Amino acid sequence: MRRPLTVLVAALAALSLTAAPAAVAAESPAATGPAASAKTIKVRYGTFKAKTYKGKGTKVVKLPKGATRGLVTISAPGEGTLKVQALKKNRKTHGRPLVGKIDGPYKGTTVFGLRSTSYKPTYLKIESTSKKKWTVKVLPLHKAKALKKTQKGSGDAVYRVTLKKSKKWKLAYRSAVKDNLIVTTYGLTRNQVLVNKITKKYTGKVRVEDFSGFLVVRSSGSWTLKR
Fold first, then answer.
1. May I ask the CATH class of domain 49-139?
2. Using an 8 Å Cβ cutoff, are 214 and 185 in contact?
3. How far is 203 from 165, CA to CA, in rounded Å?
4. CA angle 78, 158, 144 (to 5 degrees)
5. What confidence score (pLDDT) does residue 95 get?
6. What is the pTM of this model?
7. Which 8-state DSSP code applies to residue 29?
8. Apex 126 CA angle, 89 and 138, nearest 5
9. How far is CA 37 from CA 12, 43, 157, 212, in A?
10. Do 33-45+144-227 and 49-139 fold alike per CATH?
11. Hey, where are the domains in the chain?
12. Comparing C-alpha atoms, which of 98, 156, 96, 160 is closest to residue 124?
């Protein structure tokens, strides 16, 4: 007499198990398709309270709580060299500097944490030989500006952008010195190095595969990007 009830309970349990994944998928940000709005970036990468640091010479500062990835906006006036590096908890370096050892003055925006999720940066080390004070601001990724159809800039910069299908972008670059020009896109599933040259000038088209995330420019000159 108990067999029909047992069968009914088993059927209901199986139904609940098969229905659960559909509910989870509907709530997942990735299931809604790619987008690079500030709101989506915030959901995807999280957020933290922005913090500003000011100082002179060499100083190690602790990153804000929860800042495993973020933007770093730097203003370092005056003559002298500048280098900015993310450090691990043991204060050892990981990867290449956010700003290499360059001659000042410097003003730009760079990013940390997009290349690797295998470590959590804890500190920033700012090394400056200028006699003037520097200002460093650490912000969450969703504070990045949206990339315009025609974007003009100079030096280092970070933008959020979505490209729904592959396309060629035009890039023009000029610098007073022969130095690194590196343009990279960081998406949810892949990264693309669009340009990586040591040059004083560059003009050309670069093919960009579809992605949703960030465009990062590392340069010492002025540039114009048309998409």
1. mainly beta
2. yes
3. 23
4. 110
5. 81
6. 0.82
7. G
8. 75
9. 40, 10, 18, 9
10. yes
11. 33-45+144-227, 49-139
12. 98
Amino acid symbol at 146 = A
Residues 74, 84: contact at Cβ < 8 Å? yes
CATH architecture for segment(s) 33-45+144-227: Sandwich (2.60)
Angstrom distance (rounded) from CA 48 to CA 69: 10
Coil vs helix vs strand at 17: helix
- Which pLDDT does position 189 carry in this prediction? 83
Quick check: 71 and 139 in contact, CB under 8 A? yes
Q: Tell me how many degrees the CA angle 85-155-91 measures, rounded to the nearest 5.
A: 5
In the chain, alpha helices (H): 3-27, 38-45
Peptide bond into 29 cis (omega under 30): no
> Is 223 in contact with 152 (CB distance < 8 Å)?
yes
Q: Is the pLDDT of residue 209 over 70?
A: yes
Distances (CA, A) of 219 to 116, 178, 187: 22, 10, 21
